[in-house]
């Protein structure tokens, strides 16, 4: 699913400098500094509901959460005004690309759960958006 999300953002959020997948947010600090306006897609968590079928079957709804982290860099922006403009444009495009979109027929539409800006230091801010979809887990006999 993460690859489909990455492809969707590359196609629909055209103001982004780049879109790629990473394993965790910690990889942003340890890796090469990304270009300003780059978005990263990464897994977050899954939570399954109880089995809906009592006897003779198995069906669970699994809530799937993923993160989209938009990295904005501006070293000459002590007040953050330049970064806010880039964040606004990127955030708006990401929301337009993902809100209500289904990664596949087996997934329910994506919805925004939460978002938060996090300063990473050295003029860099990551705006991290938590998104959710759901899928069905069925027993195959």
Task: Summarize the structure in short.
With 141 residues, the chain is an alpha+beta fold. It has helices at 2-12, 26-30, 81-98, and strands spanning 18-21, 38-48, 59-73, 111-121, 124-138.
Notable characteristics:
24% helix; 141 residues; alpha+beta
Describe this structure in words.
With 141 residues, the protein is α+β, with helices and mostly antiparallel strands. It has three helices and five strands; from the N terminus they run αβαββαββ. Strands 1-2-3-5-4 form a five-stranded mixed β-sheet. The longest helix is centred in the middle third of the chain and has 18 residues, at 81-98. It has helices spanning 2-12, 26-30, 81-98, and strands at residues 18-21, 38-48, 59-73, 111-121, 124-138.
Estimated structural class: alpha+beta
Q: What string gives the helices and strands in order?
A: HEHEEHEE
For the record, give the distance between the C-alpha atoms at the N and C termini, rounded to a whole number.
24 Å
The total strand number stands at: 5
- What is the helix content? 10-25%
Strands side by side in the biggest sheet: 1-2-3-5-4
Write down the overall mean pLDDT: 87
Low-pLDDT segments? none
Distinct helical segment count: 3
Shape: elongated
* Main beta-sheet strand count, sense and barrel state: 5 strands, mixed
């Amino acid at each position: 699913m993460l690859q489909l999300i990455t492809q969707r953002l590359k196609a629909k959020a055209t103001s982004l400098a780049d879109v790629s997948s990473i394993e965790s947010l910690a990889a942003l600090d340890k890796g090469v500094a990304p270009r300003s306006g780059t978005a990263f897609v990464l897994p977050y968590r899954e939570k399954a509901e109880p089995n809906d079928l009592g006897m003779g079957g198995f069906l669970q709804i699994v809530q799937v959460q993923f993160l989209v982290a938009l990295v904005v860099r501006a070293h000459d922006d002590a007040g953050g005004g330049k970064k806010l403009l880039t964040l606004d444009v990127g955030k708006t495009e990401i929301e337009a690309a993902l809100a209500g979109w289904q990664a596949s027929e087996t997934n329910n539409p994506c919805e925004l759960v939460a978002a938060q800006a996090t300063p990473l230091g050295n003029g860099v801010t990551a705006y991290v958006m938590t998104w959710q979809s759901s899928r069905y887990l069925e027993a195959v006999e």
